[in-house]
Amino acid sequence: MPETAVVVLVPAADPAVMRHVREHTASGADGLGAHVTVLYPFVEPDLLDAGVLVALREELAGFRRFPLTLTRLLRFPPSPATLYLAPEPAAPFADMTRRVAGRFGLQPYGGGHDQVVPHLTVAMADDQALLDRIERDVASRLPIATTVEAVHVIAHTGDRWGVAHEIRLAS
Question: Average pLDDT, stretch 25-46?
Answer without folding.
Answer: 95
